[in-house]
Design goal:
- The longest helix is centred in the middle third of the chain and has 29 residues, at 44-72.
- α1 (3-25) runs antiparallel to α2, α1 (3-25) runs parallel beside α3 (77-99) and α3 (77-99) runs antiparallel to α4.
- It is built from five helices and no strands.
- By secondary structure, the protein is mostly helical.
Length: 132
């Protein structure tokens, strides 16, 4: 497996690990028979963790497709790997800014992550313009 493919797995694990600790910490109040109970997420930290989790679910498909498309269409693998690692780092920072209630920095990181995804997605189309 390539580094970029491991980053796809890492991104998947990140969005799962964003919500699991919040549920474990509040295990006495979390009702697994009613996992979407809005009352559980009334606490601001829990609400932000849920928001970060949901955003991770939203961001994951584009990232996974961008990486796989770039690899299948023979984009420059080293650059794909580097951008995928950068995306994962940006997503980790994004989760921390979401949990830390830093909306401006969070928006900047989201935009940066989206730009990285676009770059990965178009890597096969621009490979002829990149130095060897």
């Amino acid at each position: 497996m390539t580094v970029a493919e491991w980053c796809v797995f890492g991104t998947l694990m990140l969005y799962l690990l964003t919500i699991v600790p919040i549920k474990w910490i509040g295990f006495r109040r979390f009702d697994n028979s009613n996992p979407r109970d809005p009352g559980f997420y009334a606490d601001p930290l829990r609400a932000r963790a849920l928001g970060a989790h949901l955003n991770g679910i939203e961001a994951f498909p584009f990232f996974a497709i961008a990486v796989l498309l770039a690899e299948f269409r023979a984009g420059p693998q080293r650059l794909i790997d580097e951008l995928a690692v950068l995306f994962l780092i940006v997503r980790i920072a994004y989760v921390f800014t979401y949990l830390g209630d830093r909306p401006t920095l969070r928006s900047i990181l989201w935009s940066l992550g989206f730009a990285i995804n676009v770059a990965i997605f178009f890597m096969p189309a621009i490979r002829g313009f990149l130095p060897v």
